[in-house]
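Q: Can I see a sequence and its folded structure?
A: Here is a first one.
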Amino acid sequence: MNLDKLLDGLEIQSTVGRLDRSVGSVVTDHRKIQPGSVWVCYRGVLIDAHRFMAQAVDKRPIAIIAEKSIPVGTPTNIAYVQVDNSRSALARIAANWNDRPAENLDLIGITGTNGKTSTAHFIASIFRLAHLESALLGTIGYYLGKTALPAQSTTPDPLTLHGLFAQIYQNQIRHVIMEASSQGLDQRRLDHLKFQVAVFTNLTQDHLDYHRSMKDYLAAKLRLFRQTVPTGLAVINCDLSSDITDSISAVVQEKSLSNVITYGLNGQPNVTATNISQSTAGLSFRLLISSGSEKKSTSIHLKLFGQYNIYNALAAVSVAQHYQVDLNTIKKGLESTVIPGRCEAINLGQPFTVIVDYAHTPDGLKNLLQGIRMKASHRLIVVFGCGGDRDSDKRSLMGKVASEIADYTILTSDNPRSEQPMLIIEQILGAVRGQSDFEYDVILDRKRAIQRAVEIAKIGDFVVIAGKGHEGYQEIGGVLYPFDDRQVATECITNIL
């Protein structure tokens, strides 16, 4: 591919040098520049790559894409292209480099603080039974038909993302269900994509170490609706606060989106649930769908706990409605969905229930524990910690949640990363230490913490291991160690049977 074709569609401020040269590779790390490379230089969260301009020039790429004007002394055989936003430019370049495969795909984007993964898996399960071939890109992994790849991040970088789109297109899959994280949207990884469906699940405190405020956090997520085609679908949780729904509605009107489906448990949404009940087997409810004068209903039983999973199921039903999936297929798809690390029961025949879940936010933990509390006739024991180098403000909030709902809490390490685990726990305890009714223990070693929870559990108790879910590692001091809550829980249960 020639450089001029690679740059097609970019908003270019200035260009110096020849653009009729053949491109061998596109890189964002100056250390990976090879003969024939195009280096895209952008401002990172922590480091501005423009500081490495001299080192990059020394490696002699055929072109540099950057936001700053051309440095004095840059060799004339290096094309220099100045753009307003290098991250957005990278998204376009990545699309061009892969021959724009996303233009031939039906993109379904899901954003929100919680529920993205579950909603995506519900949709994928329904689509599979409806013979709508789909790929799924999200937190747990990248599923490209028969190919499954580990997820690098919830929303991958543009070069990875468009490479995945190319594989999906080559595999003759036309529907892509993808989680759209706030960071991915804010960092312009999804720029220039056109979505046929945009789903908004909810918004609660998270990632404020990255976003400066909840307002900025919301603004990032709203970008998904700004990238939805006018004939596309907006799926909105109508039980959110009015300021959030008003903000979404404003964007929907601004973009003249012609199709809107609301879901929720209150008011008169298009998709709702009644007769909700919970048991040790999961959730049951009556699904009600209203489309104009047409009304449909059926009974649903999910293999999951917590009312929040009803919301995720309703969001998936809303998407299925748009694709005219019949009610029986929707029912079978929802009821057959199993999501790794999401309310996943570890059952080896022990006389108590063990649940592993990804809940890592105050709202996520609250929803999980409240859902289990509603059907737990015995003790609720929770094991959790908080990740290091992430939003520290949520730590005391999660401690407060545990103190109010759980009968016994074991605080432990999550992914402490560069932080000291005990300092993280001190912050978790900040708002609840000294409360006479808060029974807790601190066991920094996560395996020992899980072991302790299993050992003290009695007949009928619920043990909830929260925070890591599907993750197969623990990050301590910048080093990744193999660690899977589900595997560890299985080992601990086996040892007591």
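Q: Show me another, different protein.
A: A second, unrelated one:
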Amino acid sequence: MSHGHRGPHPSGLAAPVAAVHGGYEVLDYDAVLLSRIQFAFTIGFHIIYPSFSIGLASYLATLNGLSLFTGRSVYLDLFDYWKKIFAIAFGMGVVSGLVMSYQFGTNWSVFSDKAGPVIGPLMGYEVMTAFFLEAGFLGIMLFGRRLVGPRLHFVATLLVAAGTLGSAFWILSANSWMQTPAGYATNDKGQFVVADWVAVIFNPSFPYRFVHMVLAAYLTTSLVVGAVGALHLLRRRETATVRTMFSMAMWMAALVAPLQLLAGDQHGLNTLAHQPAKIAAIEGHFKAETRAPLILFGFPDMEERTVRAAVEVPLLGSLILTHSLDGRVPGLEDFPERDWPPAPVIFWSFRIMVGLGLAMAGLGVWSLFARWRGALYRWRLLHFGALAMGPAGFIAVLAGWTTTEVGRQPFVVYGLLRTLDAASPIAAPAVGASLAGFAIVYAIVMGFGVYYLAVLMNRIPEESPDLPPDTPMRAAGITPGPAMLAKDAAAEGGR
């Protein structure tokens, strides 16, 4: 066996190493596969923190506003409790996300060369607008209430929340363009360049994915807040802050979970229109069918082109995907086999996501029933359920991203640039060594971070007495000493 190269790469660089068997070159996928695993590993760790901080920033803005406009100290107490947790989650999100930018240059240099004129500015806009906004006002939100006063402090908190949403806007715009590219042209170097910025930013899948992700972030946050509140209720810590925390979280779950199911349905219809092969793999359909069943469970077999041990519901597949009992559902055999995504992976990741979404909606309905019965703070079984659902949002987000990203394969830019052609010409041992390094560092750093978050959440929120709305507050300065107060009193008496 001898080793050689696959010939010219789309970038003009050498392609990943290939082996020669019997005069024919067979590509060695090891380096590309390890690069994919490394990127999936880093983004998997990273995405859980933005999905939490996006929702938590909006929650903090809500608490701050309620404290300002109602004068109730319970909201400010909850704000002070959760802002510490937000600061840790925000910092860990920033740190875990930085390395992905380097991977674009090290492991995916061809992708950076080809798609950089489109993706690069979108990532730059995220940093120059959203990240600067949230980072610039974060200090005021965390430490500046007594210095700037409650109203400006509320404005700063709103701007931090707006920054987190802005980050989601730009990042999802870039990622959605890779799913449904639009508004581009190709130059003489084979690079994708922008022909229409509006079409690039608001590409066909972006509105659906943005709404879906923001709602997922709100649900994730509500489940964490609800789990913390349930933990304290189970420990008989039924204070005003704990009751308020749990009540607000259950309201959010009850209201947002049904909206997420509707948003997911619309997102699915959009995916069917623009990425039908992904839908076929998700649904486990190898042959196109009218009046197609919904395959609830089973084991897709790519070799035999069937789903083994399938559990089906007749007609429901067509009804969900086409909103018609007679609708046609595409099959993988409608597309070239070389363009098939790995059906077993996304078949199950999608069902994990949907199953957890239904469980979230069920928790919301359960909480409404308990609230109606006046037992929201007394039903320990509900509290155990809310505690168990605490990590469900993170798992659902990871399952959703797996479905989205693996379902795009074998393309990195859907229909235009294959993942195999986007990788850097580097050897597998080099990628494996960096992957092992990432795994060790992430395990240590993220482990300590998660542990500290758990410690903070385990503490019961402090409570302050309610003050009359017209009570003056000292914004800054030094409190006068007793001697100065006595001197002032004597002066007043001499007058």
